[in-house]
Specification:
globular, BirA Bifunctional Protein, domain 2, 256 residues, three-stranded mixed sheet, nine-stranded mixed sheet, alpha/beta
Length: 256
């Protein structure tokens, strides 16, 4: 059986708003397609017609299909707050953000406050989950597994922390838990957007400006900190891509 194709693009260093707008446009396109398909199913059911034959009668009436995407990027320093997040978890004033050159956005993803910055792999999958499974919890576990497999290639044991989405080190050791990858997604009609933020050579000082993900008394870490040296950033991205293909059983294809 042929693997599903996921169109891939590395956007490089890009402003957060620009990347968000780009995601939203493709997300909306897929959601609109799902709406068209759903409406045709309803009409077909009401008229008692055979759905498959009804819409294969004319080449002018070919059913649209959703497209899977995966984008990688880096952002200039920016704090983003999830739709259920609490601004009390931001520890600096807006004036101090401006002084430090940190942008701030309230977003429509899940989760609380997090930081994005250079040398952090931000992954934005726009996936039609109905082509895989309709389980958002399972989807998040799949994303976590991508990072866990990548960490394993560097001799690190990535773990899940009960009730806390993302990937951790020493999750079961109170006082020593360290989060290396944060996650927050949006899903409508089983189309996803937003995604994960994997700290590679990230400047962790920025996390002192927030209570990361609204979780107190737990640390944040990076590959660089854990391995005591800077990583080949492009190499890490390649490993994440390979593990995404493995976990989701897909083939990444470079966007033209």
């Amino acid at each position: 059986m042929d693997k599903q194709i996921v169109l891939f693009n590395d956007l490089g260093l890009i402003d957060y708003q620009e990347a968000w707008d780009y995601q939203e446009a493709l997300f909306k396109k897929n959601v609109d397609i799902k709406s068209i398909l759903r409406n045709k199913e309803i009409i077909n059911a009401n008229e008692g017609n055979n759905y498959d034959s009804l819409y294969q009668q004319s080449e002018k009436d070919v059913l649209p299909k959703t497209t899977h995407y995966l984008f990688f990027c880096e952002h200039s320093p920016v704090l983003t707050l999830g739709k259920s997040g609490n601004e009390k978890n931001i520890l600096i004033s807006k004036e101090e953000m401006i002084r430090q050159g940190i942008q701030y956005f309230k977003t429509n993803r899940g989760g609380d406050i997090t930081f994005h910055g250079p040398q952090q792999i931000v992954g934005y999958p726009i996936i039609d989950l109905e082509m895989f499974f309709t389980d958002i919890g399972k989807y998040l576990r799949f994303l976590e597994e991508v990072i866990i497999l990548t960490l394993d290639e560097y001799g690190l044991k990535g773990e899940r922390s009960k009730g806390e989405t993302g990937v951790w080190l020493d999750a079961g050791m109170p006082g020593n838990e360290r989060k290396i990858c944060a996650m927050g997604v949006r899903c409508s009609r089983w189309i996803t957007m937003h995604g994960f933020a994997f700290n590679v050579n990230t400047n962790l000082d920025y996390f002192n400006t927030i209570i990361p993900c609204g979780i107190e008394n737990k640390k944040v870490t990076s590959l660089q900190k854990e391995l005591n040296h800077a990583l080949d950033y492009e190499e890490v991205k390649d490993k994440v891509k390979t593990n995404f293909e493995k976990v989701f059983g897909v083939q990444l294809k470079q966007m033209q």
